[in-house]
Amino acid sequence: MRVNKSRILYIQKFLIEQTDEERHATVAEILAYLETIGITTSRHTIMREIEQLNESGIDIVCNTGKPNKYFIGERHFEMPELKLLVDAVRASRFIPTRKATTLVKKLSDFTSVHQSGELYRSLYTDKQTRSVGDKAYITVDLLHTAERTNKKIVYKYFEWGADKKKDYKHGRRDYFFSPYGLIWNNDRYYSVGWSDNHGKIITLRVDRIATPKLTDTQAEPRPKDFDMAFYAESVINMYDGIVRDVTLRCKNAMMKHIIDRFGEEVKTEILDAEHFAAYVCVPASPTFFAWVFTFRGGIKIIEPDDVLENYHDMLNSALS
Question: Measured in Å, how far apart are the chain's first and last C-alpha atoms?
């Protein structure tokens, strides 16, 4: 009985690894494979067990002929889907190189050995530094666990000093944090939640969280009026600051940048043949001002007056 159970699993393994839409296997080839691992059986038994695999949900396609040929049809992932996932893993600087290699290998197991080579094709990525350790990767999992179990975490937080060494905030002080969710932005993870130490909702760069631990303390409940989608679009994209309604005067060529930043639903109005107005809700922060400055007059802040004045103050400070 044990041999019979092993046999049908080996038949499944052979078909998954060795066959696809372009490469089929005959019963004779399956018999030859089984013999290499010490299993002897008959053609009739092979055909019966292929039918049993089909009945169990494995999509084994039979091309009738002399002889019949079999291959795995529908899989968990189609090849275009696997290529997309592999590219995303390889392009992400957040995933450590060693972990990325492991993930690509696991994804390649979802197709035949013949097609898996297609997943290792050339992909250009920029040369910015890739993560070299698993700490941030593990921190993400811990944050998910904390959110799911409704528990606080305790951690330390650091910035980078001028000497390229970690500068721990407030002398390695412990911070207590109730995570509400994770945001992926610009190839980085951010955790949003309630900080006991700050007494408000804050955003943490996950790769700057040090020695995080799950506590047994109940997390602070998320405020009923807290909108994670709005937070992600505004605070993460433009960083922290007082959220304001701002009117921008833009040259027509700037529409693509306005939509890239604020989405297709952004409210706009044609002003004249060369300009349009964009009405946006953003944190009026230095990061927002820097984004406006990038376009060298193509996008200008029109109102409110105090936001425009703060923008001018920042420009004057940069020149002084």
Answer: 85
DSSP 95: S
Nearest to 258 by CA among 297, 308, 292, 302: 292
Is 135 a domain residue?
Answer: no
Residue 15 has which token pair? 């078909």
Question: For residues 22 and 111, is the Cβ–Cβ distance under 8 A?
Answer: no
Mean pLDDT of 19-24: 92
Domain closes at, from 195, 218, 241 = 218
Q: What is the pTM of this model?
A: 0.62
CA-based torsion, 170, 171, 174, 177: positive or negative = positive
CA angle in degrees (0–180, nearest 5) for 61-64-69: 60
User: Domain with 269 in it: what CATH number?
Assistant: 3.30.70
Q: Return the pLDDT at 123.
A: 60
Phi-psi region of 164 (alpha: psi -120 to 50; beta: other; left: phi over 0): left
Q: Quick count: other Cβ atoms within 10 Å of Cβ 256?
A: 8
Cβ atoms of residues 277 and 293 within 8 Å: no
Residue 62 lies in a domain: yes
Residue 134 φ/ψ region, left for φ over 0, alpha for ψ in the -120 to 50 degree band, beta for the rest: alpha
21 secondary structure, DSSP code: S
The enclosing domain of 193 has a CATH number of 2.30.30
* Whole-number pLDDT of residue 233: 67
Query: For residue 91, what are the domain limits?
Result: 79-120
pLDDT in tens, 217-258: 999 999 988 888 777 766 665 556 678 899 999 999 999 999
Cβ density class 216-234: b for 16+ within 10 Å, e for less: eeebbebeeeeeeeebbbb
Is residue 181 included in any domain, yes or no? Answer: yes
- Report the number of distinct structural domains present in the chain: 4
20 domain residue, yes or no: yes
CA dist 10 and 251 (Å) reads 65
pLDDT at residue 305, rounded to an integer? 95
Percent of the chain with pLDDT strictly greater than 70: 91
